[in-house]
Structure prediction request, 117 residues.
Amino acid sequence: MAEDIKTNADDEMIDEVDEIDDSSEKSSKSGKKDSGGKKSSDKEKKEKVKLGERIKRFFRDYKSELKKVVWPTREQLVKNTGVVLFAVIFMAAIIGVLDLLFGFGISMLTNVKGLFS
Prediction:
């Protein structure tokens, strides 16, 4: 099963590289002029792909990309969730302490200002 997925992924990557090579060749040729003075891109106009075909291609590509995803194990998920929760609680505590200190400092300044006026 894993070999099939690897083979399919390799084949898809080769197909994608071929498509990129084809498109780069077309783009490099599109700027050249032929003997008639017209751009050769007139001959190489892409056929407009129908909406249904584009939707099918999207879902086919979507499915193949999801096969490439490496999903975390349950242990990794629990560990990472714990790290994130700890970081959030730690940062909230730091911000809370700073808020108390600054609030106390502001209240002290207003009390001192009231003494001199």
About this structure: The CA atoms of residues 8 and 37 lie 44 Å apart. The chain has a mean pLDDT of 77. The helical segments are 2-30, 51-68, 74-116. DSSP finds three helices and no strands in the chain.
